[in-house]
Every structure is written in structure tokens, then in C-alpha cells.
Amino acid sequence: MFIRRTQTRSRISGEPYVTYRLVQATRVGKAVKQATVLNLGSHFDLPQAHWPALAQRIDELVRGQRSMLESTLPEEVRAFAQRFAAQIIARKPAVPSLGAAPTARTVASAASANPAAKPPSSAPSSAPGTPPNRAADSPDSPTSEADRVARYQEVDLDSLELVDPRSVGVEQAALSAMRQCGLEDKLSELGLNRPQIAAAVGNVVARMAQPGSELATHAWLGDTSALGELIDFDFEAMDLNRLYRASDALYKHRQALQEHLFGKACSMFGLGQTITLYDLTNTYFEGVAAGVSKAKRGHSKECRSDCPLVTLAMALDASGFVQRVQFFAGNASEPATLEGMLTGLHAAPGATVVMDAGIAAQANLTWLREQGYHYVVVSKLRERQFDPSQATEVQSAGDVTIKLQRVQGAHGEVLLYCHSPAREEKDRAIDTAKASGLEAALTKLQAGLSKPKAPKGSQDLATVMQRLGRAKQRFARAAQHYEITVATDPEGKLVTAISWVKHIKPGSAAAHPGVYCLRTTLVEQDNATLWRTYIMLTELESVFRSLKTDLGLRPVFHQVDRRVEGHLFISVLAYHFVHTLRLQLKAQGINDSWNTLRQTMATQRRVTVTLQRRDGRVVHVRKATRPKPRHQTLVNILELDPNPGRTHRVLV
């Protein structure tokens, strides 16, 4: 083998360009003919001085020969050799029987080595929607007796090598969800070509399996993942910029993709568009993000207010599927975003909107009533009224008793006071900690007044009042329940004593620990239904947790507007397919988080086994490892192929 530099022309534009090819010379009769074994592409950048060593090493790998000089080769040469040898083996026609039937002596030798051996049983058929792989053999197809016998080969066990291990378990599950939702077909309909679709799929699958930047995604697709084998695309040869352009394309068609995917979810799971969950979160930038118009300083929900932020708003249905997303500046006012988001949803008249207190400004509630929407929100009313004797009870999903009391409110609303034992325990713990902190601060101030060598100014009225104000501000939740008295000398300049009395303020959270209030216009619904409708909002909170912790929403490294929003949108797409898989598993009683599911499936690999036969020829078998028991359970529920990519046998 050798490498040749060839000048050719584009069939489309006619422009000349240079490409590199791996060529093999073979003798045919009296003539020597040269044939291209592999096109190395126009971006092959290995220095020409290393070409002979690369060609020789590729030939050795394909023929299963070991090289004593391999360790002396540059790392770049060894990496290219592994990559190109794997491509050559993958593109060779697969042979179920690995050649002609062996002689009786060979069969006897193999049988004597393993008298109990039997022909391998048929593997399950491939998962629905999985395309045929490169020349993969089909164990389920009828075979002759000679073919079954020929599957037994006499090989040198010392020559066994396992090469090119790549992850495939998460990739297969992600691809299955995408194909159920028709993502590839929709991208083709939107005008993307095959390489663009492959890059877009790679972006989303990587966000599900190994969240990171586009640079990290490019390395993962090329070096670690077997996704390319599942969709018949060479990610190792893909330029990094193609991933960025794929992100741009996904963002450009975000509206069409959102509508398509939500429509598919509705048809797959029988969803009704009657309830919309709405909330916002934000994520931070690494760097100053000077060129990003939406990168603004604001209140970070991740306590990263030291960085510029960007805000993501999401509207979901009651099952947790995304209806619409929109991006706002990092300092966006939450209440000001509601009208623009819901106007674009075209929700049916009488639909219900569930949101948290941060968005439920009075102006938004008035607008919702005017537009014919119903709503369920947490009330901002500071006064609570809860009478356990007037309450009804409902069981939560965790078999916890929740007490509900209905009170008629203004504007045709119903106020539903809810008491949760778990929330009461939490509120009491917080109140105790805040009260203890305030009393400790007051005690310290009081002790400082009577010290013989008290610091100068520690008894000064202005100084004491300033310190008292700071303590009350720090422990504001507790301070409202304390009546604090400051005694001074006759001149009113020095503080002589500080005393305090605690009186729980009526109607406050401390007076009714564990109680929160819901406001709603759904006056016809019973208490239990109203409470369960509000609890749906916790699904939205879990969505944001999943996006930020499992699907790479944070941080953002990009410095261009469209790339920032493209990065966020890819995480949203990844969430849609993750949620599709999780709902299918939940229907069978598996409620694991995506992080747990991902770790379970990530153990499966595709690997190539290389063995040398007695006659000097080499057998290459590429196949996925057997799923572990927990993974096999997921495979069965999701109707996946336990051998993703199928088995590919090659005889060289």
C-alpha cells in the first residue's frame, strides 16, 4: 500500500482540488494494477515523510500482523493507522461463514477443542426504525449446513486482539427516541442534507450521552462513540465547523422543530393541550461575553451572579413535554415575559396556566382572565388563614396526608390553603434557626454593654442601633416576631440595656408552619384536583434540574448570539428525547433519573476482535458487548437491539 496525492475536479462546480488516496498495487496476470483502497479526503494533513510508515502500519493492522516498530511511530501516525484500518475493515463485504467450508481435519480440530460447542443461536431482530448497517450479516437468515459448520474456525488464540472499543448503549437508545419522533425526516424536509443531518443528530445525542461544548462533542463523536456506525457516517473525518453550522441550522428551524416534536408527543402519548406549565431559569457564561446582546448581570439561580447570565423561558404541557422555548436577557423581569410566550402558543380557550409566584404579578393574572385563560398560582398574600377543622384531606404520591381548606377570594377566585407535614417540618427548622441567630446577635449586643473594657462606642446609641438594624435585616424572617426595647441613660446618648419579647405575628408563616396558599379561577374543580394541578409545577422544576445537571445547559462558552441560543436549544431537544424514553420506562415501573439510566447503558461497547487463522488469513469480527442485566431490562422495555450495529465479519 502507498498514499497518492491526486488532483481532481468538483463534479458540481468544476473547480480543481487535491485529494489523498490509499492505493494498493496487485498483479493481475502479467500486469500490475493499482486500486484505491480508501479515499483519505482533501484535509489529510500528515507530513509526507510519514506516509510510507502509515501505509505499512495500515496494512499490518488489516492483516492482523504485529509490528515490533509500532512504539517508535509518532502518535499521529498510529492514530491515523487505527482509524483508516477500521474503515477498511468496516467497508469490506461481510461473510457469514468467513470463507469456504474448512477441511474435515480443521473441523475435527475445532470440535475436539470444544466438544460441547454449538452454532450460535439467532439474535433478535433489529429495533424498529434501525437502518441496515454496512454489510452486516443476518444470523436469522436461512443458512446451509456447510455455512453453519464453517462458522467454526481454527485460529491462533495468542493472536487475539480487541481493538477500537466505542460506546453504543446510550447512542442506540437516543437514536431510537429520535426516530420515533421523526427528527431525521423532519430535518430532511426542512432542507438539510445528509452530512448536516448527521452533524445535528451528533450534537443532540452527545448532549444526551456526554454533555459538553461543541469542541468536546467533536472529540467524543470521533474518538469514543459508535454513533457513526449506527447512522453510517464517518464522524472522525467531520470538520469541527460542521457541528457549529448544524447548531445554527437547528436554531434557525426551532419553531418548526418545536411544533413537530410536540405534535409527535401528543400523538404518541395521547396528550391533551389543556394545561401549560410556565417558568424561567438562567445560566451563566464563562468569559465576559461582550459580543452577546442577551448576556446581562442579574440574579443567578445558581448563585453565579459574578458572571453574565442568559435566561431560558419554557412552556410545557402537563406531561412535561416542551411546547415552546424563548430566550431573554439575563436581567429579564420574569413577569414581563408571560404575555409574549403564551400569545405564540395559540392555546385553546379555557386552557389552564400553572406558574410560580415570581411570574404571577397582578397585571399578568388580569391579562390571563381577559384572554379567557384559567390559572393556578402560588399566592403572594402574606396573611394566612388555616383552620384544620375546616380542611379536607388528600393523599400525595408518597402517601403523605395533605390538608386543604377552600376560601372564596376576590375577582371570582378561589384561595386554597394547603398544609404539608414535610413543609411544616422544614418551616419550623428554618424559623428556629433564624430565631436562634437573632437572639444570639441580641445577646452579644447586650453583653457588650456591661463589659468592663468594652470597645469605644459599643454603648453609643447610634452605633448600637446600627448593629441592631443589621441583625434585624439578616434575620428578617424572625425579626417580625420580636418586640425589641432599647433603654438609654438620662441624656439619651448611651445604651444601658437591651431586652426583647417574642410574639408570633398572626397570619404569618410562623403562625401557620407548613401552609401555603394557591390562587385559581378553576372554581368548579374540587380541592384535590386543584392541588394536583399545582403539583404539576414540580415537573417543570425537575426539567430545569435535568437541563442544568444532566444535559449540559450550563455553563455557556459561546460568544455569538445565535451560537448561545443554539447551545440552549440543543439541550432542550435533548430533553425532549430523554423525556420520551423516561415516559416509556415509567409506564413499566422504572422511575430512574436520566443520569442513572445513562450510567446503566454506558457500559455497552462495540469492539473488533481480530484473530489469525492457521492458513495466515485474518478474521475480524466487530460486535457489541452483551448488555448487563439491568441494561437488558431497559433494552427489552424500549424494544432495542441487544446487539446494536449487528455483527460484521470480515476475512482478510
How is this structure best described in words?
- The chain starts with a strand and ends with a strand.
- The protein is built from 21 helices and 18 strands.
- It is of the alpha+beta class and 652 residues long.
- The protein has four domains: 2-91, no CATH class; 104-167 and 600-651, no CATH class; 255-420 and 514-559, Transposase Inhibitor Protein From Tn5, Chain A, domain 1, CATH 3.90.350.10; 423-502, no CATH class.
- The strands form four sheets. The chain has a nine-stranded mixed β-sheet with strand order 7-6-5-8-9-15-12-11-10, with helices on both faces.
- Helices cover 39% and strands 21% of the residues.
- The longest helix has 29 residues, at 421-449.
- Helix 7 packs across helix 19 and helix 10 (240-252) crosses helix 19 (561-586).
- The chain has helices spanning 51-62, 75-91, 104-113, 145-150, 169-180, 183-189, 194-209, 214-223, 227-231, 240-252, 254-269, 338-343, 362-370, 421-449, 461-474, 476-479, 527-535, 537-549, 561-586, 594-601, 629-638; strands spanning 2-9, 16-28, 31-41, 155-167, 275-284, 309-317, 322-329, 352-355, 374-378, 392-395, 401-408, 414-419, 482-488, 495-502, 515-520, 605-613, 618-624, 648-651.
